[in-house]
């Protein structure tokens, strides 16, 4: 993921064409970019966002904002009832309760993601140490 001026770019690598390509994912408008290197990709992302903002200004249109702070979700009537009851029991409005639950889920996801990165770093360090030991004169 990449971020620039509040816009988030999701990047993929095409191993057939040997090129990175990406798309801004937090807007309804279509904004794409591509590059052969990380620096080229980053520049293309920035240029695409800047071009989009300039195009909107030129046309006198407001650019699609990355997030408004509002979203609509559809759930079953039974789940709606249960969520409303949970909010009432906790003494919170439905919006406050749902916001709290979403924040908790995102924090949990962030903790899982951080733990995964930490474990990957430990594995990489262990492999490097094992490789050094294997190559040392006392093991020859």
Mass-distribution shape: flat
Helical coverage, percent range: 55-70%
* Cα-atom radius of gyration: 23 Å
Give the distance, in angstroms, between the N- and C-terminal Cα atoms.
44 Å
Percent in strands: 15-25%
Indicate the structural class.
Answer: alpha+beta
- Total E-strand runs: 4
Order of strands in the sheet with most strands = 1-2-3-4
- Mean residue pLDDT: 86
What order do the SSEs take from the amino end to the carboxyl end, as H and E? EEEEHHH
- Count helical runs: 3
Quickly describe the structure:
This protein folds into 2 domains: 2-59, no CATH class; 77-135.
Word description of this protein:
This protein is an alpha+beta fold. The chain has two domains: 2-59, no CATH class; 77-135. It has helices spanning 38-59, 77-89, 94-135, and strands at residues 2-4, 7-14, 19-24, 32-35. A four-stranded antiparallel beta sheet has the order 1-2-3-4, covered by helices on one side. It starts with a strand and ends in a 5-residue tail after the last helix.
């Amino acid at each position: 993921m990449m971020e620039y001026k509040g816009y988030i770019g999701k990047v993929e690598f095409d191993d057939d064409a040997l090129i990175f390509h990406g798309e801004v994912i937090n807007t309804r408008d279509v904004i794409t970019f591509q590059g052969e290197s990380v620096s080229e990709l980053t520049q293309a992302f920035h240029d695409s966002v800047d071009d989009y903002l300039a195009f909107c200004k030129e046309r006198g249109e407001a650019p699609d904002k990355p997030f408004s702070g509002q979203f609509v979700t559809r759930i079953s009537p039974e789940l709606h009832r249960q969520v409303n009851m949970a909010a009432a029991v906790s003494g919170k409005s439905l919006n406050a309760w749902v916001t709290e639950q979403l924040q908790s889920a995102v924090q949990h996801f962030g903790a899982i993601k951080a733990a995964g990165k930490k474990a990957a770093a430990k594995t990489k360090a262990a492999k490097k140490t094992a490789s050094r030991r294997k190559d040392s004169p006392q093991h020859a």
